Amino acid sequence: MDPLTWTGGLGAYFVPVIQIAMIALVVGIIGSFTAVFATSTQPVFAPGGAVIEPWKPTTASTLAELILPAAITGLVLFTIEYFWGGEVTLGAWFASSGMPGWSVWLLTALSFFLVGALIAWMFQRAPASSYDTLTFWAGVVILFAVVLFIILAQFSSFGGAGIIGEIAKQFLPVWISLIVLFAVSIVYKRRLGLYGKLFDSVVGMIGFGIVVFWVFTGVYAGVFDLIITHDPLAQVSGMKNKIPGTPTPEGSEIYPIYLLGGDNLARDVFSRMVQGSWVVIQIAPLATLFAFMVGITLGLPAAYYGGRLDTFLSFLANLILAFPVILLFYLLVTPEIVETGLPSYMGAVLFLFPIIFLVILFNSRFFTQKNKQTLYVGGTLIIGFWLYFSLISQDRTPLNFMPDFIDLFDVPGGILVVFVSVVFVNSPTVFRIVRGIALDIKTRDYVAAGQTRGEGPWYIMLWEILPNARGPLIVDFCLRIGYTTILLGTLGFFGLGLPPESPDWGSTINDGRKLLSIFPHPALAPALSLMSLVLGLNLLADGLREESLRD
Amino acid sequence: MGLFILRRLGVMLLTALCLTFIVFFLTNLYPNLEKLAKTQGNQRMSDAAVVSWLTSRGYRSEVDPAFIDAAIKGDVSNEEFNAAVDGFDFRLFRNYGEWLGVIPGYVIEGNDGEVRARCANHGTPDEETATFCGIIQGNWGFSSVFKNDVGTIISTRLGLTGKLMFWVMVLMVPSALIVGVLAGMREGSRLDRSLSTFSIASTATPEYVSGVIFITLLASSAGVKWFKGTATSAADNATFENFFLPVLTISLYGMGYIARMTRASMTEVMTAQYIRTARLKGVSFRNIVVKHALRNALIAPFTVIMLQFPWLLNGVVIVETLFNYKGFGWTLVQAAGNNDIDLLLACSVVAVFVVLVTQLISDIGYVFLNPRIRIA
Residue A297's beta-bridge partner residues? Predict the structure, then answer.
């Protein structure tokens, strides 16, 4: 079988369209930049009240204003063509059509002058709105071309739409889920609260789309074994460092191609990249949630009570924050430290906080309804501690006390250590944010009213202050998942925590970086994935912030 | 003001002591010491040999020689022996004091009959060996990986990282301020939105991602080969070719954050009353931005820029590892990876110092720059 090209036969129609649209997009963006500085495109308010109107095509122009820039731009273009244009220059092309010498020169000069005039006009005189139109339509054309390509690729024969087409086919379950989710959400957006409002902001929608794309990818690949084409750990002989689109050896029963090439151990880069999203989706949101529980449980009383408690907790938080993150990781996640069980003990402390948080939450809510109080608090305690002991009692660590028949799960090697260290690094920052917001809300009238009514301090903290702090906290939650993803990548990049063959993005980048200048593809695929996920989370947070401010 | 600085200095000192003690505690946990003994002595040391190696160099308390002999002969089982030696050792506090230089360095006659002293780099002491040799005396210890004085290593490496940081600042601060001011001067305009998206994208790209992308595009066979993918040679002779990519990689991640802060501060200033007054007086937009808004808008970013230093430290570690530039960050990774206790402690002292001093400067600087706080 022949190696695949990037876009295959289908690309012949799409690539030129996208290229032209791309050029238009770049011109539009550069143009809107220059239009801001070109004062001639907008009214200028001079001192004394005089208004200088922008230039219009009907206004008479002087020689210096139009012809000189055109001539200079044309000359620059000619110089560029003369030195870097290669054999086929414009002049040579005119000459080849058999025209006399003087007309060749005249035509060449005229063409360059006209193109120069066009460029000079665009960057000097064109109204800013024309660039907006250009950028908008270029964006629309690119979007439609890409979507159409993905749809047509689903119906093309194998390899008919190249590597990108085959990748688009592999992601089919994700596309379907995305379409269904977006359709349902947009139809019912008025009934969905803040989540629904997200679909009013373009930025928020783009961010949400990217994040959900990776969530679906992770779940489908990790739970249902869809999307991936090969076993992420399997090595296929002869595929070491092969470029994207290389076919696997004939006669084997596996998927006939390495879509994004092979890495330095002859494993499939595409499958590892997809499987890597599952590692992130498992750890990052949960670790952030735990960090929030720790931060909230400690931050609220620190702000509410103040005094010694606040001083002590703030000092502790600042102490952890003063460590450079990487030093902290190196001190907590090396195999020698893991052997002492230190991360397990830290986990035993940190994982207590969700239980404490929930118990206080229910206890203060149902303090006057004894039946419900017993039910909720008791239920939380039983389920919480069962999960808690299952979680901290792990095989092959110093904390392994639970008999296997009631031990619900064992987290696979290294993940727990990584989880604990990420929660530990994030908690002090969350503490500071919660404390800051709570200090502000504490002075509001409704808190004073609650106090006068005789509400308990924990009720006020968790049911008066916390709900009113939710806006900034939700935004920070999204940003923090992104930051946690970056931290996970950092751990992998230094080869800490997770086993070296793990497909997570950080470890894969670490594997690929040694041969980066010869074979960049094994490191580039996970790098771009990580970037897109974090970018999506940042855009989502931005959209949420915008929409919650509009409330 | 004086009292404020004094109090901050006191808290700083306390924080530094706590932090160094934590690092000291973690690096002196038994498995770490065992690894150190095995890399320094030989890999196939028995447990008993490890203990005797550690006790004769002052890392652990003395163990009864008879007990060790019994362990070597096999009279004591492995579990019993390990339980007896690898627990918490109160000598840790004494060692910390020795490292600080407030307790005289140890002089121990080891099981092999040789006399060793801390102040002679764990060798045989002579008449000139000092009694105290901690960081207070300016003695940072001896690196077991680089076989050199830690003070010398740290100062050379810091110099190299300083060079990197200088160029990062030269590139990052002006571009971030320009981006932020341009985005903030007309809130909600197309320019604002595109620049804000750029800043978000740059904060969403950690160094190990942007570094990989830059190397792929600008320094590999797949893209163009304008730059070098390694900066090792930049240590002696930094050129645009071998130094630009690491500088760009670090600056990009920090830039977005500073730009967003500048933008926020600029938009706030642009809605202020005195800007409206200036506009009504007929001052041109350019003059409003440059003469009226800019100076006030730059107070908040100053604090942010100072607080960026600790973040840059992270970036420096990643980038120096990625580009193999042998500066401070690279040394930190080497020290941590090989449990080089003295070197790692020195690295953390420097890191913690940077963090605390930048916090202090940003607090003081904020007070000085903001007239409302200064006069009140």
Answer: none
Answer whether A402's CB lies under 8 Å from A389's CB. yes
Task: Find, among B106, B112, B115, B161, the residue nearest to B134 by Cα.
Answer: B106
Q: Helical H runs in B232-272?
A: 240-270
d(C-alpha A40, C-alpha A544), whole Å: 37
- Measured between alpha carbons, how far is residue B277 from residues A404, A443, B273, B280, B371 in Å? 75, 34, 6, 5, 21
Give phi and psi for A236, each to the nearest 5.
-110, 120
Is residue A187 within 8 Å of A510, Cβ to Cβ? no
Q: Which residues of A touch B210 (CB under 8 A)?
A: 531
| Residue A39 banded pLDDT, cuts 50, 70, 90 | very low
The Cα-based distances of A434 to A303, A362, A466, A542, B37 in angstroms read 8, 20, 9, 19, 45
DSSP state for residue B292 in the 8-state scheme: I
A481-484, long-range: CB within 8 Å, 24+ apart, which pairs?
A481/A284, A481/A285, A481/A288, A481/A537, A482/A533, A482/A534, A482/A537, A482/A538, A482/A541, A482/B204, A483/A426, A484/A283, A484/A284, A484/A287, A484/A288, A484/A291, A484/A422, A484/A426
- Give the Cβ contact number of residue B218 at 10 Å: 17
Task: Report the CATH number of the B150-369 domain.
Answer: 1.10.3720.10
What pTM, to 2 d.p., does this model score? 0.87
Size of interface A-B (CB pairs under 8 A): 163
- Partner A contacted by B324 (CB < 8 A): no
C-alpha A548/C-alpha B265 separation (Å) is 20
Six-digit token string for A395: 């095989």
What are the extents of the domains in chain B? Answer: 2-137, 150-369
The owner of tokens 């680089």 is: B146
Name which of B70, B29, B51 is nearest B111 in CA terms: B51
Report CA-CA distances (Å) from A483 to A295, A350, B179, B301: 16, 19, 23, 21
A327 touches chain B (CB under 8 A): yes
- C-alpha span between B182 and B199 (Å, rounded): 12
Q: What is the pLDDT of residues A324-373, one digit of tens each?
A: 888 888 888 888 888 788 888 888 899 999 999 999 999 888 888 888 88
Facing B31 at nearest CB: one of A203, A318, A339: A339
Q: Which residue of A has its CA nearest to B337?
A: A330
Question: Residue B212: which of A325, A527, A534 has the nearest Cβ?
Answer: A527
Residues of chain A contacting residue B189, judged by C-beta atoms under 8 Å apart: 36
Pairing of strands A257-258, B107-109: unpaired
Q: Measured between CA atoms, how close is B11 to chain A, in angstroms?
A: 9
Minimal-distance CA residue of chain B relative to A541: B200
Distance CA A153, CA A4 (A): 14
* Mean pLDDT for back-to-back runs of 10 residues, chain B (376 residues): 82 88 88 83 79 81 75 73 74 86 78 75 74 81 85 91 91 91 82 86 91 88 80 82 90 89 89 86 82 82 76 87 91 87 88 83 74 57
Residues A430 and A476: their CA atoms lie apart, in Å, by 9
State the pLDDT at residue B375: 55
Chain A contact for B199, CB < 8 A? Answer: no
State residue A413's pLDDT score.
Answer: 64
